[in-house]
Write a structure and sequence with these properties.
Radius of gyration: 26 Å
Structural class: mainly beta
Oligomer: single chain
Distance between the termini: 96 Å
CATH architecture: Sandwich
Strand order of the largest sheet: 5-6-13-12-8-9
Number of strands: 13
Number of domains: 1
Shape: elongated
Bound molecules: calcium ion
Length: 158
């Protein structure tokens, strides 16, 4: 009877260890490298872009564009977790639909830090407008609404 009890205890211990092992294994393991899940949203900046040197003017505390399809650029940053790169940057004008920005460079959005640019795809009316931009990373995290890159500007002439 004592022998059976010892064996039963051993089997129970082994099962307990097995449960621990299975329960504690990390499903985020990729190629033997344990990846820490990243819970931070990407952040980004936005600026008026003026390659011709004539579109934008900063006047009395606000940006003025003498172009109704003005151009912007900026920098999007995901984080330091390898592989969790920026996958897209989108912008919207006056709370409208989101539109895609382009990555600077030939290989698209592939890095944790990406510079981007775009020209407004719709023709803007003269007057005040608000532009917002957001970024998405490889884990599907988007910029928090409170962290959108925002720029207020005025179109002064088409
Ligand atoms: Ca790239």
């Amino acid at each position: 009877m004592a022998k059976i009890r010892v064996i039963a205890t051993l089997v129970a211990s082994m099962l307990f260890c097995l449960v621990l092992l299975v329960g504690c294994s990390d499903s985020d393991t990729e190629g033997g490298v344990v990846r820490t899940a990243d819970a931070t949203s990407p952040t980004l900046t936005i600026n008026p872009l003026d390659p011709s040197g004539t579109t934008w003017e900063y006047s009395e505390g606000k940006w003025e564009a003498s172009d109704n399809t003005p151009t912007f650029d900026g920098k999007a940053v995901s984080n330091t977790v390898a592989g969790n790169h920026i996958t897209s940057v989108e912008y919207r004008i006056d709370g409208g639909g989101w539109m895609s920005a382009q990555a600077v460079g030939n290989d698209g959005f592939t890095e944790n830090t990406e510079h981007y640019h775009f020209s407004i795809a719709t023709t803007l009316s003269t007057g005040a407008h608000r532009l917002e931009a957001q970024a998405t990373d490889a884990e599907g995290m988007r910029t928090e609404e409170s962290e959108y890159a925002t720029i207020d500007f005025v179109v002064v002439a088409p």
